[in-house]
Amino acid sequence: MRTQAALLRSTDGRFSLEDIDLDEPGPGEVAVRIVAVGVCHTDVLPRVVPLAPLPLIPGHEGAGVVASIGPGVVDVAVGDHVVLSFSSCGHCESCLSAHPAYCDEFGPRNMSGRRPDGSGGATDAAGDPVGARWFGQSSFARHAVVAARDVVVVPDDLPLEALGPLGCGVLTGAGAVFTALEVTPGTSLVVSGAGAVGLSAIMAAAAAGATTIVAVDLNADRLALARELGATHVVDGAADDVAKQLRAIRPGGLRYALDTTGVPSVISTALDSLRVNGVCGIVGIQRGPLSIGPAQLTVGRTLKGIIEGDAVPRQLIPRLLDLWAQGRFPFDRLVRTYPLARIDDAERAMRSGEVVKPVLVMD
């Protein structure tokens, strides 16, 4: 299948828009015409960590229309509107117990840019292999071939231009609140980092009925947006007394904390802000060793790593769409669209913090 994709050929270079030959869908796979795809910090990882060999097509927040299906696909049909999410095997202990984000094959299926059998899934104009399975999809392209298990069918009257981020960034923040932390009505939460994941967590906490929701960030505009999306309090992360301010908001300590920054000192502050038996979740890649003080966990606190919100995409994404329709989860306010040809501008806007969630829209 001939299509166009944005290739990353060097860790410090611009994206290259090229024609590629994409494999036709095999058993259990579907080909999706991509309508839009979110740009996420995870798509920058191949620039800084040698996870997947280059050239590679990044992109893992795709949304589009099913163009063709491979043998054995029975629950997805040509013409279905779909959101693409992370890849999982479906048969390991974690998958069978409804924790696909902790799939035994998560690394090779999502971070290698290859199929489980090691094939790249595409070739360039010279016939050389290209990695076309980043997070099982490589959706910085006009078409992607993905496992049918990894797509979520959505109503065809919804704007696909807005839905791609539901597959990862929004899913991660909301899933962390609803599933991993199980935030309950009347409780309290502090979220460190008001990016796409953090703001999604704040919207989810408001929908879950939390009555004290605190956002901590360095960006005043992000804090203002956090208030509009459900935060009851905001704290400037550059202040010298963040921990003191958090304690003043909830003198007995907050029930939950979620760190989206990966900064060890920020994680430690979040831990200190918790009440006894409080739970601190961390998402993303930690930026260095974390030292745990003698009393930080001994009072019954829990420190919990979270991948992809510990979500089952086919369960959580429809729930988020229902909340969105009710006006209770306005994730579309995070989105700014760019044409595919401006992918480098979109990446710069995401990395600088100018835009919460850039989304590439195909012509």
Automatic annotation (TrEMBL):
Record field: transmembrane? none
What PROSITE patterns does the record point to?
A: ADH_ZINC
Cofactor(s) needed? Zn(2+)
Q: Keyword annotations for this protein?
A: Metal-binding, Oxidoreductase, Zinc
Output the Gene3D superfamilies linked to this UniProt entry. Medium-chain alcohol dehydrogenases, catalytic domain, NAD(P)-binding Rossmann-like Domain
Q: Which InterPro entries match?
A: ADH-like_C, ADH-like_N, ADH_Zn_CS, ER, GroES-like_sf, NAD(P)-bd_dom_sf
SUPFAM superfamilies, alphabetically? Answer: GroES-like, NAD(P)-binding Rossmann-fold domains
Q: Which SMART domains match?
A: PKS_ER
Enoyl reductase (ER) domain sequence ranges? 10-360
What's this protein's family per the entry?
A: Belongs to the zinc-containing alcohol dehydrogenase family.
Know the name of this protein? NAD(P)-dependent alcohol dehydrogenase
Q: What is the lineage of its organism?
A: Bacteria, Bacillati, Actinomycetota, Actinomycetes, Mycobacteriales
